Amino acid sequence: MRPRVRPLPPDEWDDFTKANPYNVFATLARHPGLYRAWLRFGGALLDGALPARDRELAILRTAHHCHSAYEWAQHVRLARQAGLTDQEIDSVRRPDALWPVEDLLVLQVADDLHYAGDLTDATWAALCDRYDEPARIELVMLVAHYRMLALVLRTFRVQIEE
């Protein structure tokens, strides 16, 4: 499929996009004000209170649920950098995979938000046992953000890089 919104050509990229030459950035840069605000928000989520492993598990599970090939491809790379193995990454797509309880909680948050748009009381209680309040807020906002981004990427037909 051809992109519905073409990425900016490289000669129009800002410094951030030049340093991060991905279609998601070059595409969203077509709306400069929204792009800059989104970069700040997305950056805060990527550099927040959650451990990188937890963050990437939540993003991959969300990408899987949302059928976002672009999001999946980008975050497989980041998940590896966060220490996830290829077997773990592949297991994110399987609901029957065996996970340590800590990872299972993160995946359950993504599942609850995907299927119900809310967390069960049991999932919330487990989150309260594991994370402080800022991290709980961040995890819910992270999943919601990547769900929104998956819709944007799919709608604009953002292409996966070669």
From TrEMBL:
It holds the Pfam family CMD. InterPro entries: AhpD-like, CMD-like. Residues 32-97 form the Carboxymuconolactone decarboxylase-like domain. This is Carboxymuconolactone decarboxylase family protein. It comes from Nonomuraea salmonea.
